[in-house]
């Protein structure tokens, strides 16, 4: 049986990756496997090519766009692309994996349109922009300028939340994890 798709989008710092990683580690019965996205940004911290992302140059990314190899892609900032390769997703689905997309908001909307009812789209929302600022500053992975840029983008991204199947407000991480788990279990049946 072909796998289903779980699309998880959120502004940076909302807790999306923490929740997704918890689901995958603590609930193997869900058979969740990442769709590994491509990006033209440099690796952060301990990120490895082919694990968290496929790291491409902007030129390599543009060539794949020209060849129509992406399910979705977005130029998030100038020369900073993110995208999902069609072939990667189909290989995983054919293997019976439930594919998890940890993607930006527009990418999530595009994947949902492409797969319809075969996909569940979740939007993880921070309780407030102020809380998001505190989280981003606490991560200490971005410059103050990058944090300002991310906060402006987050406010814009939150306007897309109603286009998702379910909005989960991450005010309390444990509550958000349990709510996400229940929604995913219901979807996968």
Helix content: 40-55%
Tally of helical runs: 7
Rg, rounded, reads: 16 Å
Main-sheet strand order equals: 2-7-1-8-9
- Helices and strands, in N-to-C order? EHEEEHEEHEHEHHEH
Summarize it:
This protein has 189 residues and is of the alpha/beta class.
Question: Can you walk me through this structure?
Answer:
With 189 residues, the protein is of the alpha/beta class. 43% of the residues lie in helices and 23% in strands. A hairpin with a 2-residue loop joins strand 5 and strand 6. Helix 5 packs antiparallel against helix 6.
Write the layout of secondary structure elements.
Blueprint: E1 5-9, H1 16-26, E2 32-34, E3 37-39, E4 53-55, H2 58-66, E5 70-77, E6 80-85, H3 86-94, E7 98-102, H4 105-115, E8 119-125, H5 129-139, H6 144-157, E9 166-169, H7 173-188
Parallel strand pairs: 1-7, 1-8, 2-7, 3-4, 8-9
Antiparallel strand pairs: 3-6, 5-6
Helix pairs in contact: 5-6
Keywords, please?
four-stranded mixed β-sheet, 189 residues, alpha/beta, single chain
